Amino acid sequence: QVQLVESGGGLVQAGGSLRLSCAASGRTFSAYNMGWFRQAPGKERELVAAMTTRGIGTYYIDSVKGRFTISRDNAKNTVYLQMNSLKPEDTAVYYCSADLLWPVRSTSRYWGQGTQVTVSS
Q1: Could you say which residues of the chain have pLDDT below 50?
Q2: Cα torsion at 41, 68, 85, 24 (round to 10°)?
Q3: What is the pLDDT of residues 28-61, one digit of tens each?
């Protein structure tokens, strides 16, 4: 099993940046595809970015392309989401996920508890 813990959320002005981290337990982190999801009040949870086990394949939702970057450090069992040029529309609870299958979907096997990102206008 894999346990995921997100951190790095907070309050930021529009145009600012945040870096989210997701620390994973377990000794087989490198075998998992990783994804970042977000959910705003009243909206469905959506996949924001995802990365394959070795970082060869990536996915970004259209609205964050060019602004967000997903990365992973398998030696540290950690996946990151660098968020630049943040917009109020990015406000949501962000969750990381892990799954042995690609592409990452909302049915991912493992989930973190979420971290709040709030972008003020």
Answers
A1: none
A2: 70
A3: 889 999 999 999 999 999 999 999 998 889 999 9
Strand order through the sheet with 4-7? 4-7, 18-24, 78-83, 68-73
Q: Kind of pairing, strands 46-51 and 58-60?
A: antiparallel
Q: Which helix (H) or strand (E) holds 5?
A: strand 4-7
**CA–CA dist 16, 6 (Å, integer):** 20
Polymer length of the chain: 121
Which residues fall within 8 angstroms of residue 113, CB to CB, at 6 or more apart? Answer: 4, 5, 6, 95
Tokens 């259209």 sit on residue: 62
Percent of the chain with pLDDT over 90: 82
